[in-house]
């Protein structure tokens, strides 16, 4: 007996010194590449998204830093909606710094050659501007030529639209200007705003000759300064800043412009980050689900290894090494792809940002991708792989043997880390624990909602299963519940992609519906403004001559506040203890008078504006937001400066205004019988349906009344549409990552369930099914999957879109069924194609070959 | 006095669910000595495979003790039992249980490689030659017939020079000709290496080739 008594001394080799584990990992992996495709592809998609967006952010931030001075064109700028008074002029002169001036306003331009006209932003500048950067023009000497006579330059988009080139003539107000050239790039210009209102540049000294600046014209005056250095800018900011602010002007420095722009991009970046974050989380879901399937498939092999003496950790290490190494490789591929995509994104964004985005290579996104990918493959494969440790060797004898242990310490730690990871990642990406937590909770909510809807749909299929339907239909529906089919994961991932695209569409439709009243009968689609009193009858006659119905003629009086609740504006702006908006105190107001509310107004508090007999007779109403800014309530007194004449009024009520609806709308509305004799201008509106008619009318209007401007709401609608299609392209591109991950999960699930499908198909063939029938079953199964995913995404997008439009954008919720159905149809089609493509060999392979293959 | 390689004393195995319990093995005791060959026979559900699993340390008995090579299995951890199997035990299964991603040669090499030994290929090749598969070294299981797969499994089982070989229906999935070939290999190599053999089978002819037969019924030993 002693012959066999050997003391059992098991040595535990660390994974790095266990050659057998490494060699087994390699041997086993050689034939598992297709099974690990899902894992690698999920990780690559997620990492690509994160790296692309992080790299884009770095590129944008870098470009903002590099272009900061050019974005303002100067070191310091003062701006306001009134001319600088003599006192301020003297103060500016006392700085003895190089200065340049600018005035800009909305105006009509008439192109002499084509006799066409358009609303533009007229920018009148003096010599010297910009101090930084260069105005790039075609021909190159256009900017230099501008100040040499009655010349004008046009934004490139405007020149292209109206086919204007240097040498042509344009008319601005009463003056005709020769076109010196086309502006390709100008410091401080470009970006989204130039899409809405392209600019025309003229010398400042020629502005008066146009006769455009009249009573009621809204002109923004600017003064640019160039300082010697940052310290000089600081001194200027400290000395001029408080003075100009007190007088109702604002100022801008390179730093504030940079911060403003940075904040703007931070919002975009946060949105992109959210999409990147979603793609990564989807990638994580893909990783976890693929490793789960992989570990499940390896149960028998693990049991064999356990039988011949492998320890649980050794078995675990074999598969962990495979996953980890592939994770590192996938991370490298994902990072490189992400950096590659960063070169494409600026092309998509080029119309939305006011400077050129170059490509800058940075190591940090690459390292980020590597670390993140490695961490994700570690964390999300740990939980499913740990189960391998507990595969009982008895499985070789009885396949149904349960795992020896349900939850190990490793699994609990992995669970905790998996829960913490998305939160930590979101916090890191947003650079804030609070925002990150919101991100995390939002995502959790969205995923839970998606899972809920997906489960609800699957429950409904089971509950209302069409038992009387044909075999093909029933079998394809039943296939959704096949073990390891990943139906729920697929519904969530593909559904999330459909959700993002559909939500975007719902928001776009809601925004467009705000201005789409232009499409309704009897609604105005053209607004004429800045009509002087003496021009009113003439303009109305002109409209009538063109058979245009005059829908309304609204009087406008410009004025400023002098006192609020008995305190002067000067004392109120000097009082820094109260948080009150200087903008609301010092701005120029455009008011009107009438005794009723319009369709876009709703009285929230008090009474409609009215006139009482005797003293304290004028009672006005104000918009909700300005009442809040001025801190005024019913009965409070206000003194307005009506072109030098003070007028005391009292607050009668507060109105809620739906600003985009039925313009023009006003902050302050006076009662009738008070301002009829005050200097005033008029706004009128009409509806023009015929483009040729519109062209003829505009042409005569500009020739006869050059200072009157015309807003074509259809043009604005077109511009909003273009903006959305540009922005939508970027968002769709990024949402594609989500869809892509969903489709990768789908492809992986198809690959992983191949054996089960083969068995089913062999059985079906054995009992007489034809290839056509099997193909139909497969296609219909994927059609169901696509349909339920699309439904999941769209049901949620209607809910999410409603919440966003109601509480974030504060606009009326609207959607287009046809477009949503098209998106849904696209998702279904894509799912069917991917599913069918991956199942081709399963469908067409003969039963005998399958039996051999399985042996 | 012959050496006892396997000793089972009052073995009982009960599976418990939330509401019921099912005893599949009830108070089974026996010993197996070095070089012995033992067959466990009985109808389906009689507890044969359960008994084999317990004896080989693949599962743990609810009560009773098993000594394998004088090691008390119930007192050992799963990883220690795995180590013990690697050192002293060989297996042959009804459904071959080859690693599908490894070639025939690699499948045979695995047990020794697991011990950390190097240059094990010559021995694996010799064993494959012994079972008549010297020309199939680099074939994967899916490229081999059932009989060939079982021969690879036999070669793998003898790779560690086991003291005891457990075989679960080794010919259950084979045709008559292959079954004969496999049977002769198992018994032949068993004799060559003086290995103890415990096999579970329905096949009475196969059982008759062993020195002892244990008959099971309803979880109890009836002979």
How does this model look, in words?
The complex is a heterodimer of chains A (855) and B (223). Chain A has 27 helices and 22 strands. Chain A is an alpha+beta fold. Chain A has four domains: 227 residues, no CATH class; 171 residues, no CATH class; 229 residues, no CATH class; 135 residues, no CATH class. In chain A, strand 18 and strand 19 form a beta hairpin. In chain A, helix 1 crosses helix 11, helix 15 packs across helix 17 and helix 23 packs parallel to helix 26. The longest helix of chain A is centred in the first third of the chain and has 44 residues. The radius of gyration of chain A is 35 Å and the shape is elongated. Helices cover 34% and strands 27% of the residues of chain B. Chain B is built from seven helices and ten strands. Chain B has one domain: Rossmann fold. Chain B has 223 residues and is α/β, with parallel strands linked by helices. In chain B, helix 3 runs parallel beside helix 5 and helix 4 packs across helix 5. Chain B has a six-stranded mixed β-sheet. A four-stranded antiparallel β-sheet of chain B has the order 2-1-4-5, covered by helices on one side. Classes of the chains: A alpha+beta (855), B alpha/beta (223).
